[in-house]
Specification:
This protein has six helices and eight strands. With 201 residues, it is α+β, with helices and mostly antiparallel strands. The protein has a single domain, classed as Chemotaxis protein chec, CATH 3.40.1550.10. A hairpin with a 3-residue loop joins strand 3 and strand 4. The longest helix has 26 residues. It is globular and about 45 Å long.
Amino acid sequence: MTHSPQLTPAQRDALQELVNIGVGQAAGTLNEMVRSHIHLQVPEVSVLSLHEAQTILQSRLNSDLLSSVRLQFHGNFAGVAQLIFPTDSAAKLVTMLTGEDAKISELDSLKIGTLSEIGNILLNGVMGTMSNVLEQHVEYSMPVYVEQTVTQLLNSSSDYASTVILAQARFRIEQLHITGDIILIFKVGSLNRFLATLKDA
């Protein structure tokens, strides 16, 4: 079983700050899109092995299908970023943002479009902040929406690296509380470069 790399306290603080800045910028963009105020926070960022991440996510999310927005990135860093929600939480979020019942099959395209846009804004906010603050060039693919289990989701990323950066994102919109997860999986060489750059941040 692989183990996660040990980050120094300074690296962990820098990583936490970068994710929080990115999420904060994304929340500002989302607030401009909708009438309701969206409060977004990431209380903790963890660096885990693929096995550790799978264990944590399965204990919290069980083996249910998840709504996932997947964004590949390349440049000085390469890998995949994902935003995941339990499908019922995803439906609640879409209903809140659009005023439409996302559980109705005819509105699947609305659900996919809305979640893809949220994922695009949030993941671009996080990756954009990292690349800007660390002064590293990163480009992104178009976001892709999929519904998978935790095992399928992580197995599809196993060709990148065995280390996962996991951040639990908490959405609060009026009285609605929704928790999702941001997952960053770097290619092996990219992860080492990222951690070295983080060390200098």
